[in-house]
Design brief:
It contains 6 helices and 6 strands, in the order E-H-E-H-H-E-E-H-E-H-E-H. It has 181 residues and is an alpha/beta fold. The protein has a 6-stranded parallel β-sheet, sandwiched between helices. Helix 1 links the parallel strand 1 and strand 2. The longest helix has 18 residues.
Amino acid sequence: MIDYDLYIFDIDGTLCDRDSTELYPHVVEWLEANNPKHIALATNQGGVGLRYWMETNGFGEPEKYPTENDIKERINRIVTNILAVCPSANITPYVAYRYQSRKGSWSPYPENLTDEGKYQWSETSRKPNGLMLRRAMKRHKVEPNHTIMVGDMETDKQAAENNLAGCHFAWAHEFFRVGSG
């Protein structure tokens, strides 16, 4: 396996289940064996945008979807779980909250946002756009040819191949050798 300077991981379906913060056993094994120094997490969390849309326009059941704070707490627990295995890793999460309907409409977003840089509401931050990956490479000072995006969805692959990112890509099940014995 090629060593990279920056490993960018999708979260849901790649590192853990959608409603969990517990890392998959094969992820823990890989982290223990490789002890990467630079890790970024790149995840779309459109449920937050959908909730905001429902609350703003008074429809649906917004309480079924997470808030920004719910996601930030979950991400912090995942980062803590990674650091328990790789205590010296430099980990930066990137989250896109905006929701896009099946018809292509974008959810509204809160006014007077405090842009933390890592938690974004713009549609250009969402995968398959490569902006989150580009920000991770810039933050960690790593070039695309020394970066790999690991994910489980076509949008993860498209984000890596996007002109903004242009980095390597691996499917999670192949990267972590799930089911290879």
